[in-house]
Recover the amino acids of this structure.
């Protein structure tokens, strides 16, 4: 940030705050700097566009900071300290955005788990069709696999290998 010209920084709190956020977003001390960043924005909060700007910054911080670096409570505390009369208008919107983001991440996780489970079931089904009852030892190993590419490879082997013993040997090799 020190390389920027003074005229850029004199352009007002918008560029300065933007640079402050970019500078500290991945550092542990962002939490300590939030109040200072929002204090510079306090005069903008009197206008609707200022509130929208603050909301955009909050969304950016919430979404871009490393997991656990900045919590909703950290953002709430910084806003309440510097803009107590406007914070109630901003914070619910951010909370809703964070909830929606968490919901979307949960959906994605569920989809990925479903894909893995279907891949496991496909391998097991082919093995059962070709070789009959599958030993628990193989089922246990298959249920521990969380890589879709490994399961895809196992499915191909389940179709092409000549015996369950060959499949088990291959499974032992790739699990090492």
């Amino acid at each position: 940030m020190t390389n920027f010209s003074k005229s850029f920084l004199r352009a007002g709190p918008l560029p300065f705050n933007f640079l402050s956020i970019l500078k500290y977003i991945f550092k542990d001390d962002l939490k300590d700097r939030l109040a200072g960043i929002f204090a510079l924005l306090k005069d903008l909060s009197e206008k609707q566009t200022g509130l929208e700007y603050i909301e955009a910054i909050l969304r950016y911080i919430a979404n871009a900071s490393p997991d656990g670096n900045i919590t909703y409570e950290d953002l709430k505390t910084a806003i309440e300290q510097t803009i107590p009369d406007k914070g109630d208008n901003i914070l619910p919107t951010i909370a809703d955005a964070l909830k929606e983001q968490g919901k979307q991440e949960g959906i994605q996780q569920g989809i990925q788990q479903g894909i893995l489970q279907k891949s496991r079931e496909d391998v097991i089904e082919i093995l059962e069709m070709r070789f009959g009852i599958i030993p628990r030892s193989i089922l246990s190993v298959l249920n521990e696999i969380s890589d879709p590419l490994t399961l895809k490879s196992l499915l191909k082997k389940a179709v092409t290998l000549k015996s369950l013993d060959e499949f088990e040997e291959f499974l032992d090799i790739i699990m090492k």
Notes: The mean pLDDT is 77. Residues 31 and 169 are 52 Å apart (CA to CA).
